[in-house]
Write a structure and sequence with these properties.
Number of strands: 9
Structural class: alpha+beta
Distance between the termini: 31 Å
Strand content: 25-35%
Radius of gyration: 17 Å
């Protein structure tokens, strides 16, 4: 996956096939379980990663009152990382529609995790970790989009179709797909929900 901001428009490039990409991003079973869960988030100190200091949050998902093993999110408010955090938050917002399509509503854990992402740029999210940050001229080759540009609405519709099991008219016969969409929506555009009671501190 690649995120690119060009002319104040954010793009997310997704390349996938039967065993990865959007297939690994989410599926019906994953969302159905997510909808049954409740997130509890607690702040747990700080951690320095790739030269940046971030706040550590423990995320525990409960199902039927039984907690799952917690995972951690480390976010940094360093302004040098703000553009990266903005694009990740925009992409996270695009996942809400397919979740609602399956669950019928937006589960509390979605909002709880979003509240953490709003605080800064993730340095570590579960097993994913920032390794380095480069500041160099953006060449035409680096800025080239790898596939056709879809609207945010079209990308969301395709992701939703795959999650709920409907036919995806843009999918290749071999199950592969290569597309780019403008992720130019902010999480603040989402409906104002009060379902989040995690209140990370």
């Amino acid at each position: 996956m690649m995120f690119l901001t060009r002319d104040n428009v954010g793009y997310a490039a997704v390349e996938d096939g039967p065993n990865g990409g959007r297939d690994g991003m989410m599926n019906r079973a994953m969302i159905e379980r997510f909808a049954r869960q409740h997130a509890q988030i607690t702040r747990a100190g700080t951690e320095r990663i790739a030269g940046f200091t971030g706040d550590v949050y423990h995320v525990t998902l409960f199902e039927g009152g039984v907690p799952s093993p917690p995972f951690e999110i480390v976010v940094s408010a360093d302004p040098r990382l703000a553009p990266v955090g903005r694009e990740l938050l925009r992409f996270y917002a695009s996942l809400q529609a397919p979740i609602v399509a399956v669950a019928g509503t937006t589960p509390q854990p979605y909002f709880a995790i979003r509240e953490v992402l709003i605080l800064g740029t993730p340095l570590r999210f579960g097993g994913m970790r920032l390794e380095s940050l480069e500041d160099r001229p953006l060449t035409d080759a680096l800025a080239a989009l790898p596939g056709p540009v879809l609207s945010r609405e079209a990308f969301t519709a395709q992701l939703t179709a795959r999650v709920v099991g409907a036919d995806d008219p843009m999918e290749g016969k071999d199950g592969s797909y290569n597309g780019t969409y403008p992720a130019n929506a902010n999480a603040s555009d989402d409906p104002d929900e009060s379902a989040n009671d995690a209140n990370p501190e």
